[in-house]
Amino acid sequence: MRISIVGAGRVAHHLLNVLHPQHHIVQVYARNLEKAEKLAASVGAEAIHTPTELNAEIDLLIIAVSDQSIATVIQQVIAYVPQVLIVHTSGSTNITVLTQQHSRAGVFYPLQTFSLDRDVDWMLTPIFVEAADPTDLRTLTDLANSISQRVYQYDSAQRLSLHLAAVFACNFSNYCYDMAKQIVDAKHVDFSLLYPLILETANKATQAEPRNMQTGPAMRGDQNIMQMHANMLEQADQADLKAVYEMLSQQILGHHQK
C-alpha cells in the first residue's frame, strides 16, 4: 500500500517503522517540519508541513495526532485527498468525527503504550479496525493482519470501553508504581526490590481473574495495618499519597465485601 501519515509523534513513529518494510510510506505531514523530516528520513518518505503538499496518489492517509486535533486535521486535508481512505488511530474518538466530513473513513487503533525509546511487539499488539465502507474495512483488516496476529473489527463504543480500561490497566497502574517509588525514595530504599512483585502481579492479572488474585491489608480488612500506613504517609508529608491509599483501600474493601 501507498501510505502517508499526519503526525510525527510516538504513534506515528512506531506505526511507520512497522509498516515501512512491507508498505510504501509516501509522505509525513506535521506542523513541526524538523520532526517530520526526521521521521520521514527513517522510512524513506517525503516530509511536508502544509496540507497543500499532500500527494493524492496514495491508498491510505493515517491521522496520528492528539484526539482533540483530529477534527481540525480532517477539515484541513480532505480537499487535497478527496478519494483517499482516511483513518485516525484514537481509541476514544468516534469514527463519526471523520465520517461527518469524508465518506471513506475508518479507524486503525493499536492498543499499546508507546515510548520513543522502547520497541513494542507488534505481532502481539491488538489492532482494532472500523470503517464506514465494507471494502475499506477489508483493506484495513488486511493491513492490520500484515503487522499483527491480533486484529479485531470493533465499533467505536467497544473501542472506547477498551480505551477507558487501558487507562486503569496502564496509566493508573504506572502512576501507582510512581507513587511506590516516591515512598521508598523518601527512605533511601532501592525501588528495584519491588520488580519481582510488580512482574508477578502483572503475570497473575493475565492468567487469572484479577478479583480472585487480590491480596493485601484492604483485601483482608486489616484496619490496623491500613491505619499504620496512612499515619506513615501523613507523617512523611505525603498527603496526596495518603488520599489515594485511603480511596483505593476503601474501593477494595467494598468490592470484596459484596
UniProtKB/TrEMBL annotation:
Start and end residues of each Gfo/Idh/MocA-like oxidoreductase N-terminal domain: 1-86
UniProt organism field: Acinetobacter amyesii
Domain DUF2520: 125-252
Gene3D superfamilies noted in UniProt: NAD(P)-binding Rossmann-like Domain (3.40.50.720), ProC-like, C-terminal domain (1.10.1040.20)
Keyword Oxidoreductase: yes
Domain of life where this protein originates: Bacteria
Keyword tags: Oxidoreductase
Alphabetical list of InterPro entries matching this protein: 6-PGluconate_DH-like_C_sf, DUF2520, Gfo/Idh/MocA-like_OxRdtase_N, NAD(P)-bd_dom_sf, TM1727-like_C_sf
Gene Ontology MF annotations: nucleotide binding; oxidoreductase activity
Protein name, entry field: F420-dependent NADP oxidoreductase
